[in-house]
């Protein structure tokens, strides 16, 4: 009896295991007539097209899969919710879908296929055509934006590498192709400033400001950067009042960056040999906006030392008011900075009280 029992168990076990393996699976992709994936579409499998035996849901990419399906021939139906629908409704169906044991059947729901589109009403077909045309336009625009972004990255690197001609050529082409992109005009203006083509830079910077203002969501960053670039171009032409107005506009657009813009103003005016009073005024604005930055103090001292006189009695250099303090503040903030040797030397020459602390090399 014992031997017969184990023999029977040995014969039954493989049959039970084999029965568990005798199932099939199904997978597929669902998309609407415009080719957009149908996320959360519901796939129902039945034998009569009415009573679902198995139900699966498509993911965000419109893909679905289902396992452990008894082999057989089924009706596979897709249900979705429309924009104004509260409940799922059937939109597509395939009869006689065969699912074999151990196999993975494929059944896609492509609502863009011609035989499905032909079933749509004339109004629905027109809506579909309009949607496809709109999507094609969006895809074309997205491709253009992608290319422009790549060009923009190239131009910025060219400017960094001082390849101003290459950057200007690239941005001129792109700004002409997409004239409503303020950032392209801005980058073009930067390249033109690098080439010292100040008139062209002024035109491009103004174009950047105009297109930015006209956009749906004007960017304070572009407004600030464009005015900063405009100020540099005006300073290059020695149009100091215009340069000052541009830098003031940049600071107004981005108050948090005012110190940087006014420092740029002082640097550009100093490099261009502008009026020392204008340099001092710009440095004072930079200091007021951010007193922790050392460079504006140095620029102020440098502009003021140009007004120094010599005492005829003692033959000593007499610095104008504020000069000595500006150099000392620079050294206090950046004692080993790039201009520290120059600042120490000047303080020593004018007999500063701090000469011992800031002895020249």
Protein architecture, described:
- This protein is α+β, with helices and mostly antiparallel strands.
- Among the domains are: 23-119, Sandwich (Immunoglobulin-like), CATH 2.60.40; 294-361, no CATH class.
- 55% of the residues lie in helices and 15% in strands.
- The protein is built from 13 helices and ten strands.
- It has helices at residues 2-21, 114-117, 122-160, 164-177, 182-194, 198-214, 220-236, 240-253, 258-271, 276-289, 295-305, 323-333, 340-349; strands at 24-31, 42-46, 52-57, 63-69, 72-80, 89-99, 104-106, 109-110, 309-310, 317-318.
- Strands 1, 4, 7 and 8 form a four-stranded mixed beta sheet that branches. A four-stranded antiparallel beta sheet has the order 3-2-5-6, with no helix packed on it.
- Strand 2 (42-46) and strand 3 form a beta hairpin.
- It is elongated and about 115 Å long.
- The relative contact order is 0.05.
- Residues 4-13 have low confidence and may be disordered.
Secondary structure topology:
Layout: H1 2-21, E1 24-31, E2 42-46, E3 52-57, E4 63-69, E5 72-80, E6 89-99, E7 104-106, E8 109-110, H2 114-117, H3 122-160, H4 164-177, H5 182-194, H6 198-214, H7 220-236, H8 240-253, H9 258-271, H10 276-289, H11 295-305, E9 309-310, E10 317-318, H12 323-333, H13 340-349
Parallel strand pairs: 1-7, 1-8
Antiparallel strand pairs: 1-4, 2-3, 2-5, 5-6, 9-10
């Amino acid at each position: 009896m014992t031997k017969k029992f184990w023999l029977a168990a040995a014969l039954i076990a493989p049959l039970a295991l084999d029965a568990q393996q005798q199932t099939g699976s199904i997978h597929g992709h669902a998309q609407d007539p415009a080719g957009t994936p149908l996320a959360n579409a519901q796939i129902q499998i039945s034998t009569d097209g009415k009573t679902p035996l198995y139900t699966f849901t498509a993911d965000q990419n419109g893909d679905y899969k289902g396992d452990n399906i008894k082999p057989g021939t089924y009706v596979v139906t897709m249900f979705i919710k429309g924009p104004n629908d509260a409940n799922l409704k059937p939109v597509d169906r395939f009869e006689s879908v065969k699912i074999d044991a151990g196999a993975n059947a494929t059944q896609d729901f492509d609502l863009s296929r011609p035989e499905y589109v032909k079933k749509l009403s004339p109004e629905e077909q027109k809506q579909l055509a309009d949607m496809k045309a709109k999507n094609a336009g969006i895809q074309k625009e997205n491709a253009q934006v992608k290319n422009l972004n790549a060009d923009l990255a190239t131009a910025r690197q060219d400017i960094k590498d001082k390849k101003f001609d290459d950057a200007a050529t690239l941005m001129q082409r792109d700004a002409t192709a997409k004239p409503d992109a303020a950032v392209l005009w801005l980058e073009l203006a930067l390249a033109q400033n690098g080439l010292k083509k100040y008139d062209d830079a002024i035109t491009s910077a103004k174009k950047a400001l105009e297109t930015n203002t006209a956009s749906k969501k004007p960017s304070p960053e572009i407004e600030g950067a464009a005015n900063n670039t405009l100020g540099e171009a005006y300073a290059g032409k020695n149009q100091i009042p215009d340069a000052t107005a541009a830098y003031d506009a940049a600071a107004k657009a981005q108050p948090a960056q005012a110190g940087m813009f006014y420092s740029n103003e002082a640097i550009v005016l100093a490099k261009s040999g502008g009026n020392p009073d204008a340099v001092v005024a710009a440095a004072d604005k930079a200091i007021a906006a951010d007193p922790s930055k050392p460079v504006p103090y140095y620029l102020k001292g440098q502009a003021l030392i140009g007004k120094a006189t010599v005492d005829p009695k003692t033959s000593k250099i007499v610095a104008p008011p504020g000069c000595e303090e500006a150099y000392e503040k620079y050294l206090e903030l950046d004692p080993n900075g790039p201009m520290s040797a120059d600042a120490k030397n000047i303080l020593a020459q004018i007999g500063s009280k701090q000469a011992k602390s800031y002895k020249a090399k």
